[in-house]
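does this look right to u?? NDP version
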Amino acid sequence: NVDLSKWSGYHQKSMEERYEVLSDYLKSKVSQRDLEMDSATANEMIENCIGVLGLPIGIVPTLVMNNKHYVVPLATEEPSIIAACSSICKLISSSATHKGFVAVSTDKNVMIGQIQLLVQDPLETIPKVVHFIHDKRQEYVDTANAHFCESMHKRGGGVVDLVCKIIEPKAMTEKRSPYLCVHVYMDVCEAMGANAINHVCENLSDLIFADLSTTDFGSRVRVGIRILSNLSIYRRSKAAFRIPLRNLAWKGADGKEVASKILDAYHFACDDVFRACTHNKGVMNGIDSVCIALGQDYRAIEASAHAFASLKDRDRAYQPMTHYTIDEKTQELVGELELPVAVGTKGGSLQTHPGYRFTHQLLGNPSAKTIGEILCCIGLAQNFGALRALATEGIQAGHMRLQARNIALAAKVPIPNLSSCVNFMISKNSFDTKTALEFLAQKQS
Ligand code: NDP
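got this back:
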């Protein structure tokens, strides 16, 4: 029962009109300045700073997730991402069985830290070290919470457990023998958590090393690297939709045909890594754009999403991140996406860049978990839009119409003439610089 009527035709509005709708939605005056960062602030954020590089930011106006409406900001240089996402979010909000996406997250925001322990004489030493650490496990958890992440513990998070893992080298040689890794599990609450858990791992490893040094086998153990794992499998979100097949009719094809072709395209990604790679790039088109707009570490999200895609299959083959089936009983297409999502609403550079304050406010200042769920909805919408286009009219028709503006700009077509130039390219079904120049020549003659 979410009223989305005021967002209808948003893409046809001028920039000023879009700001008016946003101001009305947020009940406060919105302007371009809300998104800007000055170079003095930028200079505090990174090294050797030489300024601020702008990137277009747009919105997907009508994401409905768990019966709630979200206006989702996306920052990207690639045309067609926002159009595809918006079109699918509109479809899902109006025609899916639950009138929107359904999403859930894991209970807590638990990240994994890794402490590498290299061991001489591994056959004899590894069991002793594992035993020793296992016995002192609770003591380490308590010490970490009391001294290395006190404030996180006070707010309900902190180290929850640690476990010793034996790592078998891929190729066993004289120089490469088994060693250990201590996995540290930490609830980082509303933070992305990389710095927080790295701090814990470094301090905890010093403590473990000091304790091991008091044993007769401690001299055979050396601490290696200490850092988080970006494969945050205990911090996952999942989004899904169900849509009656009859509601999938598109561009002259009936719904059953569209669904069946979408499944063919999806199965191709299950069967072939070359296709899976591109399939997943499409998923991340949407996710990265939201992450950039929200000041999230999109490199971390990318790394974990792709690694997770390799874990899905028993054979550890790289798989498509999304999953589609047809429920024959209910005659619905079911789409799902589950990902590890290490996102934060506190820490990092979130409080530094004024634009991030605005984008989080636009989303209604959701929790880290809700952001994870929104990312999954957007990734799923993006992928579904791409599959629907690929499986029916092909990707180029829609994509090149949108890319045409970039081509015209590169050919130095003045901004007031861009739309006419794009129409000229569409009429010729030719989207290249030569056609843009032909348009310019005709205009000048
Ligand atoms: P921070 O180092 O900023 O730590 C989180 C901060 O948020 C802490 O100062 C914490 O306070 C504060 N905070 C306030 N309220 C809360 C709350 N409710 N929940 C949680 N924290 C709260 O950031 P992260 O540890 O999140 O690290 C993220 C940064 O690390 C990103 O910029 C990322 O790019 C970078 N990074 C990523 C790596 C990777 O992915 N491999 C490696 C290294 C860095 P308090 O101190 O009182 O607890």
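Residues 151-152, 155, 188-196, 198, 228, 230, 297, 300, 344, 346-349 surround NDP (CB under 6 Å). idk if thats expected tbh
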